[in-house]
Amino acid sequence: TGGGQAGGKGILPALVLAWPLSPQLALGLSVSAPYGADTKFDEDWSGRYTSLKTEMAAINIHPSVAWRLNDHWSVGAGLNAIHIDADLSKALDFRYEADIASMLLGQPVPMLDGKATMKGKGWGYGVDVGAQFQLSPNTRLGAVWRSTVTPKVKGDYRVDIPTLYSQLAAGLGLSLESEVQKADARVKLPASLGLAWQQRLTTAMTLHTAFQRTFWSRFDELRIRVDNTPDQVQVERWRDANRYAVGINYQLSDALALKAGLALDQTPVPNARYRHPSVPDTDRTWLTLGMSYRTGAMGRLDVAMAWTRMKDAGIDYVDTAYNRADYAFFNADQHFHVKGQFDLDMRMLAVQYTLMF
User: Which of 61, 102, 165, 306 is the most buried if burial means most Cβ atoms within 10 Å?
Assistant: First the structure.
């Protein structure tokens, strides 16, 4: 089958706090989810030996400091403490066991899938630095650099073997049981460079532009090291990707502002050959509309909607990972090929409330 609806709904909470210590110095703290993936395919889909479920959530705890040097320059720096929580699974092909059992018993034995699951958690750390330049009362420029972060995820790799095969093996005097082994993986998150320009066009209208380059080329593979078995390697070979954005902010009244934006977001996936089913990413065009409303002297409510137009996402992926990590002998010809087309769509609703005290 085609796998069904692999996407779903998700909530991405965020919290940002700022403490001005003086007119020149401020401290900040944010908690957000900068990276993540969530796909879940039907158990019987054609690409099940490459991916069934991918749940990966990253939470970034980010303390920072900002310093206004003079009327033109401000600088800042922060620490990124990123926690990864991952749950990955795929089906295991037990056709060899079914064929061997059929031959020994002299009758057909059904081919049943097993399952491999990797669950783990871990931390990684990085830094970012930024600068802002007030060129004139109407023009502001900004730049920020974020370093690479490589969380080390530690957990368990579980191999579930169909009960029927365990029972048949026991009847033949053999052992074929489900097992759990220790495993770890390093997730190579990228560095990025962001540039921004803000220009006040009139007393009511402000133009915002931004460019970001994310250095995804370091994400060449996802390698899971499992005790006493071959490494599980998911080849990625992503490339560096750019994002271009432009937005307009129109102050309709003292309380109400209207906003609109357009962004072109390149995918780091180079082509169909490296588009893994767990993250079937493609180029995106974002259209956003929103509003900002002051609820009083100390509060502001922001609401926005985002629509994305995503290019066709063809896949022609050959899985190089061992499908049977428990028995390397069976892996000679088990390199599964997933070929087809993903139909992708994404919509977002954002709600933010700001309170000053």
Answer: 165
